[in-house]
Write a structure and sequence with these properties.
The structure holds 2 protein chains of 2 kinds.
Chain A (H helix, E strand, L loop, with lengths): L1 E5 L6 E5 L7 E4 L2 E6 L5 E6 L5 E10 H14 L4 E4 L5 E6 L4 E8 L11 E13 L1
Antiparallel strand pairs in A: 1-2, 1-7, 3-6, 4-5, 6-10, 7-8, 8-10, 9-10
Chain B lengths: L12 H12 L6 E5 L5 H4 L2 E2 L8 E15 L23 H9 L10 E5 L4 H4 L19 E7 L24 H10 L7 E3 L27 E39 L5 E15 L8 E8 L25 E18 L9 E19 L6 E9 L5 E9 L6 E18 L8 E15 L3 E14 L10 E15 L12 E3 L2 E16 L2 E16 L2 E3 L9 E17 L4 E17 L31 E8 L16 E3 L7 E37 L5 E2 L29 E5 L7 E5 L7 E6 L2 E4 L5 E4 L6 E12 L1 H13 L5 E4 L5 E6 L7 E4 L2 E12 L3
Parallel strand pairs in B: 14-16, 15-17
Antiparallel strand pairs in B: 1-3, 2-27, 3-26, 4-5, 5-10, 6-7, 7-8, 7-26, 9-24, 10-11, 11-14, 12-13, 17-22, 18-21, 19-20, 22-23, 25-26, 28-29, 28-34, 30-33, 31-32, 33-37, 34-35, 35-37, 36-37
Classes of the chains: A mainly beta, B mainly beta.
């Protein structure tokens, strides 16, 4: 289970998504700057950026859930979001991908009312946040 | 009380205040006018992206004023209650007692007095052996005694207020009682005003999710100074005033006219008119219980007398709760020091010392409580030994079965120490006699629970020296009389009952005698019959009257301290008795007003007119029952006037006219202030200063969560297909209005994309904080990327024609899910590819938005 809640901290909307597909990513945002002095001394400057991490998930959603996520992103694309990922970790941060692209990859049934067709959509979410 | 919270949130101060206010008003008047916005105005302030305007100082102020004006309804609801304090016919134990207890109008306590005096006796008179003028050895002998008595008492008793039915809700003449008591008793804690400071840009900042806009990095851009002040002023004022004009008008008019005119003519006229009007108007929403029953019964039966019966039941219930705690403390200290020294002369040694110490301490405590049961227990124990020691103990416990019980505890302590010393002289014989008389008298009058403890310790030491006088008599008599008199008349129920029984009996006996003779042959028979009839009539009249009377009470304490001395008077050459001393008396009187005036006039007049047999037979009987129940208040005046007027006029023509006019009118106008005004002023303001090295940041609402609803939450329902649309995919023109051009295609292939492109700024501060900002005004681009295949040739051409005809124009799209979009086709240059014979594929991107059904 993957939970999206926004806006943080006054949460008003919660969206539940299935677990993301494999190949999800998690990386640091910290940077290291290397400086070399004239005498050969190496200096490194580290910017940890508040332990923020960059994550990327890809979801395969049914059409209705895709529309739900679409509305969620439409409303809170610039708001702090609280995410409980599929590993149970809680993150607070923002979506960073732009644009959000829902790719209707294939047919998938059955159709769920009110949508007339059963379809599957792929969406990739990029997120930067701090684990709580 | 410290308050924490966020503005604009559900648990903000405003919410608390409203709840508290609502709780304090059980029945708040409906709010008639409202203005302003509650809560969240600070949340509206959101830092937004802005250009560099140049001014380095921004002053943003948001202010919200809530003015809630409440207007109370003109009609209040007052629940009546029977107040025994306002009952009719109260005696002196009713209103008088209670009010006096609260107003502190009791009788003045005993006056603080200071007494001083001199004992007239010389030292020689007090000391045996020194009073004689025996020799020339006594050169100088003087003594001075100063008696000073200081008495202090509490100037006024302290009366502790207690809840009294006088102040109950819904008092008859206290209209504001409801509201005021509700406000005073149920007010909850109100949040205090205060200043709060916080820091912007944090989630828990004071301004509620306000975050700095992009371009404003923490610590960057030179001197970044951020001042954030938030101020919330809450002023709640509630004023209540009442202005009520009440008008009670009741009018009853009964007019009975009976006129008969008769003269010598043949014609006669008789007219009877009975008009009974009863009108009552009440413009009060108040418990005014008035009941008037007027019954007029007309009974036919001839007599010449008027019969009138009036019955007025008066029900008087009196109940008074009275609690008073009095504490009277009196202290009397008497120190008597008598010293004498004999200097010179032939007396070898002469010393006299008299010390009289009298301590009188009295504690007086009065506690009153209403009780229903009483028990009387009297215990008196006295122990007596020799004159030197006297112990008396008296415990009196008195309970009286009355509505009023008094328990008193009086403690009196008297310590008398008398030291009498006489130096030895050369008198050959000396005799000293000391007589000590102690009389303790306690008088107790009337039932009351009184606990009196008296303790007297007397120490008398008498020593007489011996001189050379052959015969000398010295007598010292100490007579100590202590008398205490306590007379207390408690409001003992004095029942006076008068029973008047009037029995009227009439017996009528009718004896009838009948005789019967049967005369037969030689047979004589006699029978007598007596018929006795007895008529008895009895009219009992019982008048019972009972009253409860409370009389004033008073206390008096008398303590005489006297010394009786036998001394030798050289002038008369005899022993004389000399009484010296002092007397201390204290009395407390508490007269209570007993002004009760209850006149009940009763007059009855009966007249009998002889009616000639030739007159018209007129019989009339009237029974008038008037039942009135009036509950007057403390200041109201109620008057009832009942007038009967009967006139008869006979003129020459012998007209007879009877007019009975009964008019009862009662008017009560009560005017008093009554107004309820509650004003709630809630002022909330936030001031934000941003000085940022020439960079102007503009803040715009709707991002963040300062105000609920500003950031539109996604709809809980999905936009489904439109009804009636059957085309798998259709481009129409124009987007709105009657369709003039359209092209229908098959549904697009899988792989179509729904792309959401937002204008959003992501920045990292120098500290690495990621700042994401978007203004809701900024456009949100929704793009559909569609690919079509398997199109027929005509469809492909129609598509190209449609694209060509409406380049850059807003067109409508019914998608494969039968939803309607409006927008423009942004890729008109995408080619149409022929994949096979009469098989084409096409693609384009459509930028638009869904139109809700």
């Amino acid at each position: 289970m993957f939970t999206l809640q926004a806006p943080h901290p006054l949460l008003r909307t919660t969206t539940l998504l299935p677990n993301p597909l494999f190949s999800d990513q998690e990386g640091l945002t910290a940077t290291v700057t290397r400086k070399l002095a004239m005498d050969g001394t190496r200096y490194t400057y580290v910017k940890r950026k508040g332990d923020r991490r960059r994550l990327k998930w890809t979801f395969r959603l049914m059409r209705n859930k895709g529309l739900e996520l679409r509305a969620f992103l439409f409303a809170y694309f610039a708001s702090p979001v609280r995410i409980i990922d599929h590993n149970g970790r809680v993150w607070i941060g923002n979506f960073t991908n732009n644009p959000f692209e829902f790719d209707t990859a294939q047919k998938a049934g059955p159709a769920i009312s009110p949508m007339p067709r059963g379809e599957a959509q792929m969406i990739e979410l990029e997120f930067e946040g701090v684990q709580q | 009380m410290a308050q924490t919270g966020k503005l604009g949130t559900a648990d903000s101060q405003l919410a608390n205040v409203q709840l508290a206010f609502a709780a304090a008003e059980p029945l708040p008047p409906s709010v008639t006018t409202e203005s302003g916005r509650l809560g969240g105005q600070l949340g509206d302030m959101v830092l937004a992206l802005g250009g560099v305007i140049g001014a380095s100082v921004i002053h943003l102020a948001a202010e919200s004023v809530l003015a809630a004006a409440q207007t109370a309804g003109g009609e209040g609801v007052f629940a009546p209650h029977a107040s025994p304090l306002w009952a009719l016919g109260g005696q002196d134990s009713q209103l008088g007692d209670t009010e006096l207890a609260f107003s502190g109008a009791d009788a003045a306590p005993p006056t603080i007095t200071t007494q001083s005096g001199r004992l007239g006796g010389q030292l020689g008179g007090l000391v045996p052996g020194l009073g004689g003028s025996i020799g020339a050895g006594v050169i100088h002998l003087s003594a001075e005694s100063v008696l000073a008595i200081a008495q202090t008492a509490d100037s006024a008793a302290t009366f502790a207020p207690h809840p009294s039915p006088l102040w109950a809700l819904g008092g008859q003449d206290f209209q504001l009682g409801d509201t005021e008591l509700a406000f005073a008793g149920a007010d909850e804690a109100r949040p205090e005003t205060g200043d709060r400071t916080g820091q912007l840009g944090t989630f828990n900042s004071l301004l509620g999710n306000m975050r700095p806009a992009l371009g404003e990095e923490e610590g960057g851009g030179g001197a970044n100074i951020v001042y954030a002040d938030a101020e919330s002023d809450l002023a709640v004022s509630a004023e209540a005033a009442t202005n009520v004009v009440r008008t009670c008008a009741a009018s009853s008019a009964l007019v009975l006219s009976d006129a008969a005119g008769r003269n010598n003519l043949l014609s006669g006229a008789a007219e009877s008119t009975v008009s009974l009007d009863t009108a009552a108007a009440f413009t009060v929403a108040r418990a005014a219980a008035a009941e008037s029953t007027l019954a007029l019964a007309d009974v036919a039966g001839r007599n010449n007398l008027l019969s009138g019966a009036a019955e007025s039941p008066i029900s008087l219930d009196v109940a008074a709760g009275f609690t008073a705690a009095w504490a009277v403390a009196g202290e009397s200290t008497l120190v008597l020091t008598d010293a004498a020294a004999n200097i010179g002369g032939q007396l070898i040694e002469a010393a006299a010392e008299s010390t009289l110490v009298l301590d009188v301490t009295a504690d007086f405590t009065v506690a009153r409580a209403a009780a229903a049961e009483s028990a009387l227990a009297l215990a008196d124990a006295a122990g007596r030994n020799n004159l030197l020691s006297v112990g008396a103990e008296s415990a009196i416990s008195l309970d009286t079965a009355a509505e009023f019980a008094v328990a008193r505890a009086a403690a009196a302590e008297s310590a008398l120490a008398l030291a009498d010393a006489a130096g030895r002289n050369n008198l050959l014989s000396a005799s000293a006699e000391s007589a000590l008389s102690l009389t303790v008298e306690a008088a107790r009058v009337l039932p009351a629970v009184i606990d009196v403890a008296a303790e007297s310790a007397i120490s008398l030491t008498g020593a007489a020296g011996r001189n050379n006088i052959v015969a000398a008599d010295a007598t010292s008599v100490l007579d100590l009389t202590s008398a205490a008199t306590c007379v207390h008349v408690v409001p003992t129920p004095v029942s006076a009952e008068s029973a008047l029984s009037l029995d009227t009996a009439a017996a009528n006996t009718v004896v009838r005698t009948g005789w019967a003779w049967d005369d037969l042959w030689e047979l004589w028979h006699e029978a007598s019959v007596v018929v006795v009839r007895k008529l008895a009539a009895e009219s009992p009249l019982t008048l019972a009257q009972s009253e409860v009377t409370a009389r004033p009470w008073y206390l008096s304490v008398e303590t005489p301290v006297q010394t009786v001395t036998e001394e030798y008077d050289p002038q008369v050459d005899d022993m004389v008795t000399r009484i010296e001393g002092l007397q201390d008396a204290a009395s407390v009187a508490r007269p209570l007003p007993m002004a009760v005036h209850q006149p009940i006039p009763l007059a009855q007049t009966a007249s009998v007119i002889k009616v000639k047999p030739t007159a018209i037979n007129v019989s009339a009987g009237s029974v008038l029952e008037l039942l009135g129940e009036v509950r007057p208040n403390q200041t109201g005046e109620v008057g009832h006037w009942l007038a009967f007027t009967q006139t008869a006029t006979v003129d020459k023509c012998k007209p007879a006219r009877s007019a009975l006019e009964l008019a009862a009118e009662a008017a009560a106008v009560w005017t008093g202030p009554r107004d309820a005004d509650s004003s709630l002023n809630l002022r909330q303001s936030a001031t934000y200063y941003l000085v940022s090295a020439g960079v102007l940041q503009r803040y715009h609402p709707f991002v963040g969560t300062g105000e609920l609803g500003a950031l539109a939450a996604p709809s809980s329902t999905l936009e489904g297909p439109r009804a009636g649309v059957t085309a798998p995919f259709q481009l129409v023109y124009p987007a709105s209005g009657p369709i003039t051009d359209s092209v229908t295609l098959r549904a697009p292939n899988f792989g179509n994309k729904d792309r959401l492109g937002f204008n959003r700024v992501l920045r990292e501060t120098r500290g690495g904080t990621l700042i994401v900002f978007a203004d809701p005004m900024w456009p949100k681009i929704q793009t559909l990327v569609l690919n079509f295949s398997g199109l027929r040739s005509n469809q492909a051409q129609q598509l190209l024609t449609f694209l060509d005809a409406h380049l850059g124009e807003e067109v409508g799209v019914y998608d494969w899910e039968h939803r309607y979009w409006t927008g423009v086709i942004t890729t008109p240059t995408d080619p149409v590819v022929q994949d096979g014979k009469d098989r084409f594929s096409a693609s384009f991107e459509f930028e638009g938005e869904v139109v809700p059904a």
